[in-house]
Design brief:
This protein is an alpha+beta fold. The chain has helices at residues 3-12, 15-21, 69-77, 81-111, 113-121, 127-132, 143-149, 154-159, 207-210, 222-230, 246-252, 271-285, 301-306, 311-319, and strands spanning 26-29, 35-37, 49-52, 57-60, 66-67, 136-138, 174-178, 183-187, 194-196, 215-219, 236-238, 259-263, 289-292. The strands form three sheets. Strands 1-2-3-4-5 form a five-stranded antiparallel sheet, with helices on one face. It has a four-stranded antiparallel sheet with strand order 6-7-8-9. The structure holds zinc ion. The site of zinc ion has 8 residues, from loops.
């Protein structure tokens, strides 16, 4: 009985479209419209991943894996068939909505000096970082009209949590980071600091680009992640809090040999360090080497760099990390 559902999903999302949303780029075109590129499923140095857009199938000559869209999602996200279907259904339904929202917020960023000033204050200066993380700004009071002009209904916007029951934009005066199936908004004003849309926060950001690294840095917040990336640490990802959800934990414990550096907040009440301690034990039980990075008191990776710390100094902290 699941086959009609599978066909419906495959009609809504083509394999090639999906690959492109995951930043896959073909390196060359071969006969009958087929494409070759680097394999997203293993560490690939010469293009061995073949995509046939007409058949909607892939095959990798490097890792010998192949199949259809659902199979790709299973392998790529390390999820079961049922979870792959759920992920695809969610992205079919809200994928275009969220990407249209994110694009709108990105345009707003340059128009609002208070947002740019806030990013500067959080140590984010390079335009490449803003582009890499697709950082935007939700000024409030204008998303609803724009989205309705694009053909979305008020009901859809309310169901996604973008517009509240009173018909007002939910995200107001917030710097926004788009996530896989959600949005994170950090207030630049006095409202509650952190906000997500209703629903799951999703897996680890940038995981597909990070998972092949033998050393991975895990931080709590997206601003920590952005400054680390800016300082050249492209092997970092973020829990969006100090607790991992089941999917994030599964991603870190996927059986690959890697060391995870937990660079959690060194806050005064010790909660970040306690969470790091618990997590390192949990990872160890799963056979993952975990080391805890000791930041100076009162600092998180973001404030470490904002306060004048540089990449070399952070590297030293990694080298001195404790089991
Ligand atoms: Zn492969």
């Amino acid at each position: 009985m699941i086959w009609p559902a599978v066909d419906a999903i495959k009609q809504q999302i083509s394999l090639l479209d999906y690959l492109q949303t995951q930043n896959w780029k073909p390196a060359r075109r071969i006969s009958r419209g087929r494409l070759m590129g680097l394999c997203p499923l293993h560490l690939d140095h010469k293009p061995s991943f073949l995509v046939d857009p007409l058949q909607n199938l892939f095959y990798c000559y490097g890792c010998s894996r192949g199949g259809d869209l659902i199979r790709f999602v299973e392998l790529y996200h390390d999820v079961s068939f049922g979870e792959a279907m759920a992920l695809l259904r969610r992205s079919a339904r809200c994928g275009s909505l969220l990407s249209d929202v994110a694009r709108f917020y990105q345009v707003q960023l340059d128009r609002h000096p208070e947002a740019v000033a806030y990013l500067q204050q959080r140590g984010i200066q390079q335009p490449q970082v803003i582009e890499e993380f697709a950082i935007g700004y939700a000024p409030g009071g204008c998303l609803r009209h724009w989205m309705i002009s694009l053909g979305y209904s008020l009901n859809e916007l309310q169901q996604a949590g973008l517009v509240n029951a009173a018909g007002l934009d939910s995200f107001t005066h917030r710097v926004v980071f788009p996530l896989e199936t959600n949005l994170y908004g950090r207030t630049v004003g006095n409202a509650a600091a952190h906000r997500f849309l209703p629903g799951d926060k999703g897996g680890l950001p940038r995981w597909q680009r990070v998972k092949h690294c033998s050393e991975v840095i895990l931080v709590e917040g997206l601003f920590d992640l952005a400054v680390l990336w800016q300082a050249g640490f492209h092997n970092a990802t973020c829990a969006m809090g100090s607790h991992l959800n089941a999917r994030q934990l599964r991603q870190l414990c996927d059986g690959a040999l890697r060391t995870v550096y937990l660079a959690f907040d060194a806050d005064a009440n010790g909660s970040g360090q306690l969470a790091a301690h618990r997590l390192s034990r949990r990872l160890l039980q799963q056979g993952v080497t975990a080391l805890r990075v000791q930041l100076p008191d009162g600092h998180d990776p973001n404030s470490f760099f904002v306060g004048g710390g540089d990449g070399q100094q952070f590297q030293q902290l990694l080298e001195r990390a404790l089991p």
